[in-house]
Amino acid sequence: MVAEVAIFVPSVAHYRLVWLADRLAAAHTAALVWAAVPDGAIPASLTRDLLISVNAHAVALKTPDTRRLLAIADEVPKVDVNVDTRDVPPWIAIADAFDTLTTENNRILRVVGPTPIPDSFIEIVIDERPLRLAMLIYARNILLLSLAISGMTAALVYAALLSLIVRPIHRLAANMTAFRAHPEDVSRVIVPSARTDEIGLAEHELGAMQRELQSTLQSKSRLAALGLAVSKINHDLRNMMTSAHLLSDRLSAIDSPEVQRFTPMLIRALDRAIGFAESTLTYGAAQEKPPNRQKVAMAPMAEEVRETVGLLPGSAIGWVTAIERDLEVDADPDHLLRILVNLARNAVQALEQRAPNDPARDQVRLAARREGAVVSIEVSDTGPGVPPMARAHLFEAFQGSTRRGGAGLGLAIAAELVRAHGGDIHLVDGTLGATFRITIPDRAVDLSAERRHRARA
Which residue has better confidence, 278 or 342? Predict the structure, then answer.
């Protein structure tokens, strides 16, 4: 509409000048006839007819030499407005056009315009009413045309908005409503269109969010089902392990070096198993007990990990350690054992997938060293490595399993225990097989308490 107004105003002003120019052209044609005939040779009736055809009261021609009144009516009214059509500025033309449209009285105009003869002009005296009527008709036609164009534009804009924005937004809203009612239904996930604009991006992001939400709901459902199943068997399992603990106590009475060597390890393993059974649901409830940190010798811990995962001398999978001499870790021994056993067991399972195994080729390696106030531990294997699909959710329960049928809880538990110590665990890129690096910082030392302790000593 703004564009139509910008076109309407100058077009009406231009139409007024064109209408006046047509009258001046007709008067100039008649003037050429009058100028070619001697004075008095044209009858008065013919002069009157020529003035009527021009719609003028008088016609005069100004040449460089003379100024001649070519024709004049019997009664010439008084001129109200002088109009010079030669070199009219646009703003003056617009102002004059609106002045003509807003004046209802019939004014008498003296109109001056150029002629083909150099340094000459022609002037006529006419009524303003025919000009105003012609301008009103022209303005009405322009207005109707503008309304038609605006209506067509509005219809096109409405159709475009309806098809490009409104309907896609309705589709998004309907899909979100349907998905909210049944988020587990895979058919409720939106299928993105081929659009590449913001709405297409919204469709893609909504689809990705719905798929991630379904995956999360499935994981939560599995976790809830696992918790329910474990809670049902927890009581019986604890009783069976208690019975096994009593039997292991009887084994300690057997006078055999091998039995005496392995019985304490069996008793410790059963004690830990009983403790785990009593707190089976603590992982799902995010209630893992805080670490009871103390100085833990790393070399015996590595030997216990080896025996726990079953890599005894003569096994088909080799065990290699590279531990700094007399290295101690400031950590909870039970938590540290669980962390390393989970990582080592994952490594053993990865190597067992390409059986038969060769200890010279298939190895699990545990390395540890101190770097200032931080102990860095690496558990690596020479297996096939971690698949790219599992890397995105490597430390998430039920998401980061690298083995068919695995739950992915081992890495999730290890990561939780490491973070409880203020440490970090991550997969090292660019290594043979899979290498997990754990960093556990020492506890901060209270210098004032340490000084008091030394002073008392």
Answer: 342
